[in-house]
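SEVERITY: medium
COMPONENT: batch folding queue
REPORTER: lab tech (J.R.)

DESCRIPTION
The queue accepted two submissions in a row. Attaching both inputs and their returned C-alpha cells so the on-call engineer can compare them side by side.

ATTACHMENT 1
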Amino acid sequence: MSNFKIVTDSTADLPQEFIEKHDLGCMKLTCVMDGVVYGREAELAPKDLFDRMRNGKMPTTSQINPDEAKAWFEEYYQTHKNILYLAFSSALSGTCESGQIAAKQMMEEHPDCKIIVIDTLCASLGEGLIVYKAIKMRSEGRSMEDVAQWVKDNMLNMVHAVTVDDLHHLHRGGRVSKTSAVIGSLVQIKPMIHVDDSGRLVVMDKVRGRKKSLLALVDFMAGKIEGYHTKNDIVFIAHGDCLEDAEFVRDQIKERFGINEFMIGFIGPIIGTHTGPGVIALFFMGTSR
C-alpha cells in the first residue's frame, strides 16, 4: 500500500467505522448547541442533533482555523510524512484555506513533509465519495501525486442532488427568502438543490410533495450518468434522520440502473445544521454537475 495519509474533514459525513477501517484522518469542524461545543473533544450524534432541531433548537457551526489545521497536520505527521488533504468546498467554508495556510507552514518547518491540499468543491458524502475513490486507488498502489491528479480531473463529475423537507433551515442559511420559506412550506414545496462547479449550493428546481421530490432525485441521476455506469460501482446517500426515504431512493436506483452497492448514512452535524431534519442527498459520478 502506498505510504501516505489521506485526510478529510467531518463535513464528509463518513461513518466512524469507515474512518477507522481505512486509517483516514478527519479534521473536526465545530458545532455549538445549548452552549456545548462539539468537535474534536466531544461528538454530537446526528440523531440527537435532528431531534433537538425538531424541538426548536438552532445550532451554529464554525470552520477550522489555520492553527487548528496545523495541529491536525502535526498529529498526522508523526506517522506519515506525506499527506493528501481532500477538503470541504471553499465556497461553503474557509476550512480549505486554513488547511492551505497550515500546509505551507508545515512544509516550511518540516522539510521532509509533503502535503497536497485539494479544494474538492464537494460537501457531505459527495466529499466522502471522492475520499472513498482515493482510498481505493491508494490500496491499488497508486502514488499520492497520481491520486491527487485523479481527484482534480474528476471532482467536477461528483454529482450532488439534494432535497430538503423544511425550507426554514435554508432561509436561515441565506439560501431562500423568508417569504419563499413560509409560502413554500404551506404548499409543500420541496426544493431540489445541487452543488455547482464553484462548489456552491444552488436551488435548481422545486417540486410539490415529498415522494415527488425523492423521485426527482433519481430522475436527475438518470440525466447525468449516461456513459458513467461503470464508474458508479457504489452510490452514496445521506439522510437527516429519515432512513426509510433514503432506502426508497436506493431501491429506485437499483430498479432503474442496476446499481447494487450503496453507502447510506447520516448527514452530520455541520451540514445538518444548515439543511435540517428530513434532508435526502444523493451522490454519484456523472457527465457533469
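ATTACHMENT 2
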Amino acid sequence: MSTSPTRSVFTREQEQFRGAVRGFLKDQVVPEYSAWLADGKPSRRFWRAAADVGILGIGVPEQFGGLPGSDYRHSVVVTEEIQALGLAIGGLRVQTDICLPYLLHHGSPEQRATWLPRMVSGDVVVALGLSEPGAGSDLKAMSTRARRSGDHYVVNGAKTFISNGAAADLVILAVKTDPDAGRRGISLLLVDTGTPGFSRGRKLDKLGLRAQDLAEISFTDMEVSVDNLLGGENEGFTYLTSNLAQERLSIAVNSQAAATAALSWAVEDHQRGNAGQEVKFTLAQCAAEVAAGQSLIDQALARHVEGRLSGGDAAIAKLYCTELQGRVVDRCLALAPPSTVLRGNSRFGNAYLDGRVSRIYGGSSEIMKVIIGQSLGL
C-alpha cells in the first residue's frame, strides 16, 4: 500500500509538488540521513535545500518569499513523503506547522518582515520554548520570568525538551510577564539566540527520533526589547491555544503516514515469500484500520482548509491516528525478521521507537479523551 495519488482532498498542483518533494528527499536527504542520526540533528545544508524546493515557504505570503498558492495541504504532502521513506524530521514540522503560524497571525508588520523571509530561505531555524524542568507542559506553572525594565524585558529561567533547541536562531519564548495571573500572565517573546544571556544546555539523548534536535536552553538576565513582544502582553496563552488544532492535526497526519508506510513495507516483505494465514489476517486487519484512519485524516484536513476544524475534531484525529500508529507498527514489527532488533538495520525498529512519543506530545491520549468528552457535553 502507498498514499494514493487520487485522494480528492489534494489538488493537481499539490500532487505535482509531491513528486518534487519525493525527489528532493531521495536525492538530498536519504544519502546523509545516517549522519543526522549520529549528529542528533539535520545538517544546516538541509534547511537551505528544503527552502529551494519551497518546503519552508508553505502558507507564507509571496511578499515574504512564500510558496505561491500553498496551504496546509502542502505540509501534509511533505509529511507523508518523509514517512514513506522511513525518515523522522520532526523539527521541520515544528518550523512550518507550529512556529510559522505565530508570526503569520500575531506578528507585527516589522516582525514579519524581519523574520519570515529568513525562515523561508532556510537561514533561520525556529524553536518554540514552552516546556520547563519543573513544569513540563503545564503553562500556568512556568517559572521563566520576563520583568519589564524601560524599553526591554529582563528574562530569567530555563526550558527543556525544546525541538530545534540546539540549532535554533530564533525562539518563540513563553514567559511570565505577570507572575500572579496564572495563564493570564503569559506572553510570547521573539528571542534571537545570539542575545547576551541566552545559553544552550545539553542536547538530549532520546529513545527515538534520533535525527531530531532536542535540547535545553536557559536565560540569565537576558534583555529583550519590548519590540520583540509577539502580539499583546499577557495574551500568550490565547495565542498558544489558538494553534493547537493544527498542531494536533500535524501530529495525527504524521502518525497516519507512519502507519501507512509500515503496512506498505510489511506487505512488500511478505509478497516475496509465502505468507501464512496468520500474516495475511494481521496485515488485512492493519489495512482496514489504516484505511479508516486515512478517511478520518482527509475529513479533518478538508475541514481545516475550510477553517472549520474544531478542537474536538483535532483531538479525535490525534487520538485515533497516534494509537493506530502504535498498533500497526507493533504488529508489523512482530512479523519482521529477527535482524529487526539490530540498531540501524530496520525501518520497523526505527519506526517503533520514533512513534512512541506521538501519543504523548501535543497532548497525551488521555488529554485527547478529556477534550473529546467535553465536546460531547460530558
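NOTES FROM REPORTER
The first helix runs from residue 12 to 29.
No errors were logged for either attachment.
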